[in-house]
Amino acid sequence: xxxxxxxxxxxxxxxxxxxxxxxxxxxxELTKTDVNVDALEExxxxxxxxxxxxxxxxxxxxxxxxxxxxxxxxxxxxxxxxKIITWKFRATKKIRERTKNVxxxxxxxxxxxxxxxxIKLPKLSISKFYGQSSLWLSFWNSFESxxxxxxxxxxxxxxxxxxxxxxxxALSTIEGFALTPENYEIAIKLLKERFGRSDVLINTHLxx
Length: 208
Fold this sequence. Notes:
Residues 30-67 form a coiled coil. The chain is mainly α. The chain has helices at 2-30, 37-62, 67-99, 136-148, 155-164, 168-174, 181-195, 198-207.
């Protein structure tokens, strides 16, 4: 039992160090004048993975903690939990600040061909989606109502708009697809499967 407890604590030590490094990296990025949103998004994904691992280890180690050391254990767990919550909140807030006011997209006419030359393309105010599952539904609802269900746009035009409003891991998911009507449907399916799965959204909600 002591050997198992020791191994778990060593593993937790490594995970805690990783969490601290990620939080420090987020802090450093947030001090920059030109914040790299893609980098922040990647750090948040890494932090989420390490956070889940840390919770699992904390739960296992608690079984071996004696009553006289329980208070110290609880304080240490709370310290790291607060650190994760703080930097996750600050990074997410910065991402939203940088992406909430996206300029209207001007898609080159050479990229698509509409059935009528008089079609007026919608002026968009859709925040870019960088791959954070908790923001998927908000992004998709906005995109769906403004673009996806707009019958005046071709599938290729919709695909252009979609790519222009993605970044980070979300854009990487469909970046290699050519602009064709068939690929537009495939791209949407892939994005929904990766970022809109109910189990992912539930876990994200519970971890917030």
